[in-house]
Amino acid sequence: MDRPRKPTLDTVAGAVGVSRATVSNAYNRPDQLSAALRERILETAASLGYAGPDPVARSLATRHSAAVGFMLGQGLSASFADAALSIVLDGLASTVDGHDHCLVLMPGKDKGGPRPETVARAQADVVVAYSLPDDAPALTAARTRGLPMVVIDQPVLPDTARVEVDDFGGARLAASSLWASGHRRFGVVTFALHPDGHNGPVTTARLASTSFRVTRDRLHGYLDVTGTDTPVWECARSSRELGRAGARALLSASPRPTALLCASDELAFGALQAVRDLGLRVPTDVSVIGFDDVPAAEHADPPLTTVRQPLAEKGRHAGELALRLLDGGRPGEPTRLPVSLVSRDSTAPPK
Amino acid sequence: MDRPRKPTLDTVAGAVGVSRATVSNAYNRPDQLSAALRERILETAASLGYAGPDPVARSLATRHSAAVGFMLGQGLSASFADAALSIVLDGLASTVDGHDHCLVLMPGKDKGGPRPETVARAQADVVVAYSLPDDAPALTAARTRGLPMVVIDQPVLPDTARVEVDDFGGARLAASSLWASGHRRFGVVTFALHPDGHNGPVTTARLASTSFRVTRDRLHGYLDVTGTDTPVWECARSSRELGRAGARALLSASPRPTALLCASDELAFGALQAVRDLGLRVPTDVSVIGFDDVPAAEHADPPLTTVRQPLAEKGRHAGELALRLLDGGRPGEPTRLPVSLVSRDSTAPPK
DNA sequence: AGTGTGAACTAGAGCGCTTCAGAACGTCCA
DNA sequence: TGGACGTTCTGAAGCGCTCTAGTTCACACT
């Protein structure tokens, strides 16, 4: 079972009869040696089964690992049940991969965000944080490691790059359009205010201490228009099923709301279903509005009125910021991406 | 701008007045030094802003990186549009994270799987491959690096751990139940046979050279029952929208199929929609059957008959295999997880 | 006093690579 | 003919850590 030791740079150098530095150059600086020699080295390497410089050793020597970490607020399946997150992540991944960087995923555990130990051991030299609670331990862990960081949709941290959208403004926009068309009785279906898995109506106290920036802003945007006494139903995750249950609960009040404001499209899809469940019609009986404008919004039944934010762009931009930080760039001003209201067929004036 | 150099083990050792080895032990082998000294070291470390041993250097010294790579056949958003994949990935991630390992994601590019360069540079010491074409370059790259590998739903490779489900048997099961209940005119909606983005009817030649094992097996399972002249529509990805379009195309044939066999639930959801689009009813006019049994299948309208495979289990098991390989374990026999037919309301005998 | 023992700590050799300051050897032009 | 210059290749010093094989020391036992 004495499997042969894996070949190293030295092995190859010895075999070809050149110095280790030259072999290294063959891989990293082709201009530093003659094409012929390089060819010879690469051939010998291949015949020895040498797959190129060891990434870890290289990282140690160069002091960067060509990897960006991604810290997530939730588990993977929960995260990706939400198309919006997938799209952002995809934008990030392709940007980063295009520059030969890997993506190190740190999914959230129970209490909002990855465990600090995970963060401490991750081989990444920049991290991107998304949908973490404002006080996530992972954030602290990344800081004490001195990792450059870019946050998406999160509160500013000193020395941190940031990309965000105007969640408050977007939500306000949506609510205003409904208000302007005559709606006066609203219900709000939101995703988590706190990372504790709560499902149900939201109390004022809970609202006041909201630990997710995005939730807070969207909620405040809605309530700013509809009034703070608007009933709010919290779902632990942004999922169709939970949205359906929440909407059903809100719609069973009397007088029944004439419009449902949802914190995400995913929740709105559930709301659409809930309206049908109760034998009512969208938008005749109830208007439903979403947030994100994921691709499915356009094909929903009926097509969903929603607040569009440039999701892929958000991921791509975060990726670029990360790469820039990696290059020693300064964080710079936060980038604010535009939102807009996309009117489709799930909203109409009340009867 | 001369930011102070980051503290290292040596810095801390110097400050406390002990050897580097002792500081290392303070972190990795608390039993090797007195509790008091350990405490003192940790305190000093904290006050110096030392966040613990550098992961890269540690990996070099220990020769393992505490990370498992995950090679994917497609881009992230495409992947996660498919709930099945998310669930598998989530199972994998939690297993792996529970053992203090990171997940390095290598999403696929255009031509089936991550780029070989990406794989060559990934800091992982075991990789899991999922839904790659059988001949993906990433597979070769991982091999030449000598990385232990576990493949999910892919053909056996020498010296590779493997978890799989009986796709052929599952598909056969589904088709047989329909056949037994009297159906004779079928249509099949499948996801990609080749990583070339093709959408449309499938030719015999294309079918014969299918490069994804899963596709091949499910297809063959269906066609084994329904006959090889059954029309098959290929969708480039497993998405609701593409499934809808494909189903619509198949249903416009005359005579119209009385049953649609879909390679995934996601495609089946699209098919459900397509039937409605045409003013027909499920299952009265058309039966629809899926594959995977994702959570949404139960809540579809109507609830979807489908082939269940233990998705989370699959991911978890792959994770465990990966961890075992990391520990120097042998690949062992492939694990075959069970499939079963879950009958719900989307299937019925033909009129 | 001599010996054995275990606990607490250290020295130093790597891990596999990059990189910088040269060395060696032309070539070219004055 | 000689020196300035370019190209090609080398030597050796790290990168920050782990780990084996010690050394030291206090204490107990005879």
UniProtKB/TrEMBL annotation, chains A, B:
Keyword DNA damage: no
Residues annotated as signal peptide: none
Residue ranges of every copy of the HTH lacI-type domain listed in the record: 7-62
Coiled coil ranges: none
Entry keyword set: DNA-binding, Transcription, Transcription regulation
Pfam families: LacI, Peripla_BP_3
PROSITE patterns: HTH_LACI_2
Chain spans, region Disordered: 326-351
InterPro entries per the UniProt record, alphabetical: HTH_LacI, LacI/GalR-like_sensor, Lambda_DNA-bd_dom_sf, Peripla_BP_I
CDD domains with a match to the protein in the record: HTH_LacI, PBP1_LacI-like
Transmembrane segments: none
Single GO molecular function: transcription cis-regulatory region binding
Listed PANTHER family: LACI-RELATED TRANSCRIPTIONAL REPRESSOR, TRANSCRIPTIONAL REGULATORY PROTEIN
Name of the featured protein: DNA-binding LacI/PurR family transcriptional regulator
Species: Saccharothrix carnea
